[in-house]
Design a protein that fits this description.
Elements: E1 8-13, E2 27-31, E3 42-43, E4 54-59, E5 76-83, H1 85-91, E6 101-105, E7 120-123, E8 133-142, E9 151-155, H2 160-169, E10 219-220, E11 225-226, E12 255-257
Parallel strand pairs: 3-8
Antiparallel strand pairs: 1-2, 4-5, 4-7, 5-6, 6-9, 7-8, 8-9, 8-12, 10-11
């Protein structure tokens, strides 16, 4: 691909990560240089919770779940839909689908697969990539592309405060980002280190310098504005591809991480397959 490889200097694994159950399956990577070639993808404490919400997953992973060497040379993308947590637990009755996870699938077998783990699940409401937001991280599932078993993703909104607090605790050569000057960590729950309040009040865009100043309990420290719950059911049209994790119905179910991959720093080269 034409992407730019980036060098990782440090990695910060969530302190409650459980590799056996894929709980708190999230880490932050500090790069040796800024990524300036493409717009940053925003993160948000707003939780996706409307069944059928369309999202885009991208990665270089397997396009055939039975072929370990079917990874793509080009960044692939496909659309999946959010599945209610209750329905997801019915699909995985023997697994622990906790509040730090979210589920997504598609009726036509589009899915993330081996080699996509750690890749982004995005809300892409407009044609402008500056409006994209990161809502999930590819984590695990039973096989790939089987409509009986949705893909399991780390729910980024659950870890928003941990992400900001970890970033602001890092010792930067040139000083921390500006938003760290006003960051005030809210009281965290014992299990995840994340406050569990739901954002459902307040006025969008109200200025804030700490979460306590927002009636929703959430201040976006990147923009210094209060968050409110948003309903986003749209996605950028024309991004569906059958190239990721082709349908593999009938596979023997077993929990498996969706592998690992080094993703290039650009998202502009993503292509749909024919």
């Amino acid at each position: 691909s034409d992407g730019k490889p980036m060098v990782s200097e440090s990695m910060f694994l969530h302190p409650s990560y459980d590799s056996a159950l894929f709980l708190n399956d999230i880490a932050l990577v500090y790069l040796s240089e800024d990524v300036v070639e493409t717009p940053y993808v925003k993160i948000s404490p707003d939780m996706v919770n409307h069944p059928g919400t369309s999202m885009t997953v991208i990665g270089f992973g397997q396009t055939d779940q039975y072929d370990y060497f079917s990874g793509s040379s080009y960044l692939q993308r496909t659309n999946v839909e959010y599945m209610d947590s209750g329905a997801c637990r019915l699909a995985y009755p023997k697994e622990n689908i906790d509040a730090g996870m979210m589920c997504a699938s598609s009726k036509n077998g589009n899915d993330s697969c081996g080699g996509d783990s750690g890749g982004p699940l995005l809300l892409t409401p407009t044609d402008n990539p500056i409006d994209d937001s990161l809502v999930g991280i590819v984590s695990w599932g039973y096989g790939c592309g089987d409509s009986r078993y949705p893909g399991i993703y780390t729910r980024v909104s659950r870890y928003y405060d941990w992400i900001v607090e970890t970033m602001c605790s890092y010792i930067y050569e040139d000083g921390p980002p500006k938003y760290c000057d006003v960051f005030t960590s809210p009281e965290a729950d014992e299990f995840t280190g994340i406050e569990g309040r739901i954002d459902n009040c307040g006025v969008e865009g109200v200025a804030c310098h700490s979460s306590d100043e927002c009636c929703s309990g959430r201040c976006d420290f990147f923009t210094n504005t209060c968050f409110v719950e948003t309903k986003n059911d749209g996605n950028r049209p024309g991004r569906v591809s059958n190239g990721m994790g082709g349908a593999g119905g009938g596979s023997a179910p077993s929990r498996a991480s969706r592998g690992s991959t080094e993703v290039d720093a650009t998202r502009e080269i993503a292509r749909d397959l024919p």
